[in-house]
Amino acid sequence: MGVKNLGKVGSFFQKIIEFVTSVSLVLLSVICFMNVILRYIFKIGLSWSEEVALALFLWIIFLGAILASVEKLHIRVDLIIGLLSKKIRRILEILVLLIVIYALYILFKGSMIFVGNAHKSYSQTMPWLRYSYVYGAIIPSVIGMFIVYIGNLINILRGKELW
User: Fold this and answer.
1) What is the mean pLDDT of residues 107-130?
2) What values do phi and psi take at 160, rounded to 5?
3) 77, 48 contact by CB (below 8 A)
4) 122 beta partners
5) 25 touches 59 (CB < 8 A)
6) What tens digit of pLDDT does each residue of 50-60 get?
7) More confidently predicted of 147 and 78
8) Which end of the chain is more exposed for a tag (fewer CB within 10 A), N or C?
9) How far is CA 162 from the centre of its chain?
10) Integer angstrom CA distances of residue 84 from 14, 92, 157
């Protein structure tokens, strides 16, 4: 559901996120492998590789969180929910979605402050790279998940089943 219900635009953004995440994973693997070869065979290393790996890893995680939200792959404990009536389950789903949306709002506000403060810091090995570009991955992630969960809330309010 989620972004998929937004039609072609949502599907387009999902494909872009999947592509960027895939390319980032390939780059992460190549950089780490290359650094291992350089260190153990040639006894030299790439000073910037750890910071690039960290940046790629963070972007993979946070973009992957959007995809997990779209595909409903986040961890759920539905043992008790399965025992409830359909009406109570729907009310509980709405309550949970409202809590998640509020938590994402709080996370967004906090991440804006955090990324703003990180904008003053630069990488030690790549002086042109501000840490706000690395840690800024959380902002599109929160926005993407917010859109997905708002879509899920609208679908539930329209009477559709999410699970």
Assistant:
1) 92
2) -85, 150
3) no
4) 130
5) no
6) 899 999 999 99
7) 147
8) C
9) 20
10) 33, 10, 18
Q: What stretches of 119-159 show up as alpha helix (H) in DSSP?
A: 131-135, 138-157
Distances (CA, A) of 116 to 38, 41, 102, 139: 36, 41, 21, 11
| Structure tokens that stand for 86 in this block | 């359909």
- With beta carbons less than 8 A apart as the criterion, state whether 24 and 59 touch: yes
* Mean pLDDT, all residues of the chain: 89
What's the one-letter identity of residue 152?
A: N
Residue with token string 């291992």? 36
This prediction has a pTM of: 0.85
For 11, 90, 98, 107, 152, the CA distances from 158, given in Å and listed in that order, are 21, 11, 15, 27, 10
- For residue 69 the two structure tokens come to 């939200």
Handedness of CA 72, 52, 55, 21 (dihedral sign): negative
The pair of three-digit structure tokens given for residue 34, joined into one six-digit string: 């290359």
- What is the residue type of 155? N
Please give the backbone phi and psi of residue 9, each rounded to the nearest 5 degrees, phi first.
Answer: -65, -45
Placement of tokens 């949306």 in the chain: 101
Residue with tokens 């840690």: 135
| Average pLDDT for 80-91 | 85
pLDDT at 138: 95
